[in-house]
Target: Gamma-glutamyl-gamma-aminobutyrate hydrolase
Amino acid sequence: MPAETPVVAITGPVKRLKTAWWATSLLVRLHGLKARYVTAANPNISGNIRGVILCGGNDIEPEHYGMTGDAGADYDPERDRLEMDVARRALQANIPILGICRGSQLLNIVQGGSLYQDIRPLRKVTPNRNSILPIKWVDFDESARLVDVYGRHTIKINSLHNQAIDKIAEPLTAVGWDADGFIQAFENTSALFQVGVQWHPEYLLLSSLHRRLFTAFCDVVKQTDSLLYRL
Model:
Protein backbone atom coordinates (compact mmCIF):
# COMPACT_ATOMS: atom_id res chain seq x y z
CA MET A 1 0.00 0.00 0.00
CA PRO A 2 1.21 3.56 -0.68
CA ALA A 3 2.39 5.54 2.34
CA GLU A 4 -0.26 7.64 4.04
CA THR A 5 0.00 11.34 3.19
CA PRO A 6 1.35 13.34 6.16
CA VAL A 7 -1.04 15.75 7.86
CA VAL A 8 -0.18 19.24 9.10
CA ALA A 9 -2.21 20.50 12.07
CA ILE A 10 -3.02 24.20 11.63
CA THR A 11 -4.33 25.94 14.73
CA GLY A 12 -6.70 28.87 14.81
CA PRO A 13 -9.73 30.53 16.39
CA VAL A 14 -13.25 29.13 16.60
CA LYS A 15 -15.29 32.27 15.90
CA ARG A 16 -13.11 34.77 14.03
CA LEU A 17 -12.55 34.90 10.29
CA LYS A 18 -10.60 31.90 9.04
CA THR A 19 -8.57 33.73 6.40
CA ALA A 20 -5.27 32.48 7.85
CA TRP A 21 -6.55 28.89 7.76
CA TRP A 22 -7.66 29.17 4.15
CA ALA A 23 -4.33 30.63 3.02
CA THR A 24 -2.14 28.35 5.13
CA SER A 25 -4.03 25.17 4.28
CA LEU A 26 -3.82 26.03 0.57
CA LEU A 27 -0.04 26.43 0.84
CA VAL A 28 0.28 23.11 2.69
CA ARG A 29 -1.86 21.29 0.12
CA LEU A 30 0.08 22.80 -2.77
CA HIS A 31 3.11 21.02 -1.32
CA GLY A 32 1.36 17.64 -1.43
CA LEU A 33 0.36 17.40 2.23
CA LYS A 34 -2.99 17.28 4.01
CA ALA A 35 -4.16 20.03 6.35
CA ARG A 36 -6.37 19.81 9.43
CA TYR A 37 -7.89 22.77 11.24
CA VAL A 38 -7.36 22.28 14.98
CA THR A 39 -9.31 24.55 17.34
CA ALA A 40 -10.64 24.51 20.88
CA ALA A 41 -13.95 23.31 19.40
CA ASN A 42 -12.25 20.68 17.23
CA PRO A 43 -9.13 19.55 19.14
CA ASN A 44 -8.52 16.44 17.02
CA ILE A 45 -4.79 15.73 17.05
CA SER A 46 -4.91 11.98 16.41
CA GLY A 47 -3.80 10.31 13.20
CA ASN A 48 -0.93 11.03 10.86
CA ILE A 49 -0.03 14.55 12.04
CA ARG A 50 3.66 15.12 11.34
CA GLY A 51 3.86 18.91 11.46
CA VAL A 52 2.24 21.83 13.27
CA ILE A 53 1.62 25.43 12.22
CA LEU A 54 0.57 27.77 15.04
CA CYS A 55 -1.27 30.67 13.40
CA GLY A 56 -1.98 34.26 14.40
CA GLY A 57 -4.86 35.79 16.32
CA ASN A 58 -5.75 37.21 19.73
CA ASP A 59 -3.17 38.29 22.28
CA ILE A 60 -2.13 35.50 24.64
CA GLU A 61 -3.20 35.89 28.27
CA PRO A 62 -0.22 37.51 30.06
CA GLU A 63 -0.56 35.20 33.07
CA HIS A 64 1.14 32.56 30.93
CA TYR A 65 4.38 34.57 31.04
CA GLY A 66 4.11 35.99 34.54
CA MET A 67 2.38 39.31 33.89
CA THR A 68 -1.03 40.88 34.49
CA GLY A 69 -3.36 41.54 31.59
CA ASP A 70 -5.85 44.22 30.65
CA ALA A 71 -9.32 43.44 32.03
CA GLY A 72 -10.91 44.68 28.82
CA ALA A 73 -8.65 42.78 26.42
CA ASP A 74 -10.03 40.27 23.93
CA TYR A 75 -8.24 37.13 25.11
CA ASP A 76 -9.12 33.57 24.07
CA PRO A 77 -8.19 31.37 27.05
CA GLU A 78 -9.56 28.16 25.54
CA ARG A 79 -7.44 28.64 22.45
CA ASP A 80 -4.40 29.46 24.60
CA ARG A 81 -4.76 26.19 26.50
CA LEU A 82 -5.35 24.09 23.39
CA GLU A 83 -2.42 25.55 21.46
CA MET A 84 -0.04 25.29 24.40
CA ASP A 85 -0.91 21.61 24.69
CA VAL A 86 -0.38 21.11 20.95
CA ALA A 87 2.92 23.03 21.06
CA ARG A 88 4.24 21.01 23.99
CA ARG A 89 3.30 17.73 22.32
CA ALA A 90 4.99 18.83 19.10
CA LEU A 91 8.13 19.83 20.99
CA GLN A 92 8.22 16.51 22.81
CA ALA A 93 7.74 14.58 19.57
CA ASN A 94 10.32 16.77 17.76
CA ILE A 95 8.11 17.23 14.72
CA PRO A 96 8.39 20.35 12.53
CA ILE A 97 6.78 23.47 14.03
CA LEU A 98 6.18 26.83 12.37
CA GLY A 99 4.88 29.66 14.54
CA ILE A 100 3.29 32.65 12.81
CA CYS A 101 2.81 35.96 14.67
CA ARG A 102 0.82 34.93 17.80
CA GLY A 103 2.01 31.38 17.11
CA SER A 104 5.65 32.41 17.36
CA GLN A 105 4.92 34.23 20.60
CA LEU A 106 3.15 31.16 22.02
CA LEU A 107 6.03 28.91 21.01
CA ASN A 108 8.38 31.23 22.88
CA ILE A 109 6.14 31.36 25.97
CA VAL A 110 5.72 27.58 26.37
CA GLN A 111 9.51 27.29 26.48
CA GLY A 112 9.96 29.97 29.13
CA GLY A 113 10.03 33.23 27.19
CA SER A 114 8.02 36.43 27.63
CA LEU A 115 6.47 39.27 25.61
CA TYR A 116 6.23 43.02 25.40
CA GLN A 117 2.50 43.55 25.88
CA ASP A 118 2.37 46.68 23.73
CA ILE A 119 5.22 47.83 21.52
CA ARG A 120 3.35 50.71 19.88
CA PRO A 121 4.77 53.38 22.22
CA LEU A 122 8.23 51.84 21.84
CA ARG A 123 8.47 51.98 18.06
CA LYS A 124 10.74 54.72 16.76
CA VAL A 125 11.32 53.76 13.12
CA THR A 126 8.82 51.11 12.02
CA PRO A 127 5.16 52.11 11.52
CA ASN A 128 2.34 51.31 13.93
CA ARG A 129 0.01 50.94 10.95
CA ASN A 130 -1.06 47.34 10.32
CA SER A 131 -0.65 46.04 6.79
CA ILE A 132 -1.03 42.62 5.16
CA LEU A 133 1.27 43.91 2.41
CA PRO A 134 5.03 44.29 2.95
CA ILE A 135 5.64 47.44 4.96
CA LYS A 136 8.99 47.02 6.74
CA TRP A 137 12.26 45.09 6.55
CA VAL A 138 13.65 42.24 8.61
CA ASP A 139 17.40 41.65 8.80
CA PHE A 140 18.58 38.08 9.40
CA ASP A 141 21.68 36.94 11.22
CA GLU A 142 24.13 35.63 8.63
CA SER A 143 24.11 32.16 10.23
CA ALA A 144 20.31 31.84 10.24
CA ARG A 145 18.58 28.93 8.56
CA LEU A 146 16.21 31.52 7.13
CA VAL A 147 19.06 32.97 5.07
CA ASP A 148 19.28 29.61 3.31
CA VAL A 149 15.48 29.49 2.98
CA TYR A 150 15.15 32.94 1.42
CA GLY A 151 18.54 33.18 -0.26
CA ARG A 152 19.14 36.65 1.17
CA HIS A 153 19.87 38.42 4.45
CA THR A 154 17.02 40.95 4.28
CA ILE A 155 13.41 40.65 3.16
CA LYS A 156 10.43 42.99 3.23
CA ILE A 157 7.57 41.77 5.41
CA ASN A 158 4.04 42.68 6.43
CA SER A 159 3.12 43.65 9.98
CA LEU A 160 -0.04 42.98 12.00
CA HIS A 161 1.29 42.88 15.55
CA ASN A 162 1.30 45.19 18.55
CA GLN A 163 3.15 42.71 20.78
CA ALA A 164 6.62 41.22 20.39
CA ILE A 165 9.02 38.84 22.07
CA ASP A 166 10.85 40.33 25.04
CA LYS A 167 12.78 37.50 26.71
CA ILE A 168 13.66 34.77 24.22
CA ALA A 169 13.32 31.24 25.59
CA GLU A 170 16.63 29.47 26.24
CA PRO A 171 16.30 26.76 23.53
CA LEU A 172 15.65 29.44 20.90
CA THR A 173 17.92 31.85 19.06
CA ALA A 174 16.74 35.19 17.74
CA VAL A 175 17.80 35.44 14.09
CA GLY A 176 15.75 38.33 12.64
CA TRP A 177 15.04 41.91 13.76
CA ASP A 178 13.20 44.93 12.42
CA ALA A 179 14.62 48.46 12.36
CA ASP A 180 13.46 49.07 15.95
CA GLY A 181 15.31 45.98 17.16
CA PHE A 182 12.22 43.89 17.90
CA ILE A 183 12.63 40.17 17.29
CA GLN A 184 10.93 39.15 14.04
CA ALA A 185 12.25 35.60 13.71
CA PHE A 186 13.76 32.84 15.81
CA GLU A 187 15.00 29.29 15.31
CA ASN A 188 15.91 26.26 17.37
CA THR A 189 18.93 24.79 15.64
CA SER A 190 18.78 21.57 17.66
CA ALA A 191 15.28 20.74 16.37
CA LEU A 192 14.30 19.25 13.01
CA PHE A 193 12.44 22.45 12.15
CA GLN A 194 11.36 24.96 14.75
CA VAL A 195 10.93 28.45 13.38
CA GLY A 196 8.89 31.42 14.56
CA VAL A 197 8.18 34.52 12.48
CA GLN A 198 6.40 37.66 13.64
CA TRP A 199 4.97 38.48 10.22
CA HIS A 200 2.26 36.69 8.19
CA PRO A 201 3.83 34.89 5.21
CA GLU A 202 0.53 33.10 4.50
CA TYR A 203 -1.03 36.40 3.39
CA LEU A 204 1.80 36.80 0.87
CA LEU A 205 1.14 33.46 -0.80
CA LEU A 206 1.30 35.02 -4.27
CA SER A 207 4.95 35.89 -3.64
CA SER A 208 7.34 33.12 -4.64
CA LEU A 209 9.82 34.53 -2.11
CA HIS A 210 7.43 34.22 0.82
CA ARG A 211 6.26 30.75 -0.23
CA ARG A 212 9.81 29.50 0.38
CA LEU A 213 9.22 29.30 4.13
CA PHE A 214 6.32 26.89 3.60
CA THR A 215 8.37 24.89 1.11
CA ALA A 216 11.15 24.48 3.68
CA PHE A 217 8.67 23.48 6.39
CA CYS A 218 6.76 21.01 4.21
CA ASP A 219 9.97 19.41 2.91
CA VAL A 220 10.94 18.53 6.49
CA VAL A 221 7.42 17.28 7.30
CA LYS A 222 7.67 14.82 4.41
CA GLN A 223 10.86 13.38 5.92
CA THR A 224 9.50 13.14 9.48
CA ASP A 225 8.70 9.76 11.03
CA SER A 226 7.39 11.02 14.38
CA LEU A 227 3.73 11.78 15.08
CA LEU A 228 2.19 14.58 17.12
CA TYR A 229 0.10 12.16 19.17
CA ARG A 230 0.31 8.43 19.68
CA LEU A 231 -2.45 6.47 21.42
In short: The domain at 7-222 is CATH 3.40.50.880 (Rossmann fold). DSSP finds five helices and eleven strands in the chain. The helical segments are 19-30, 77-93, 102-109, 145-150, 208-222.
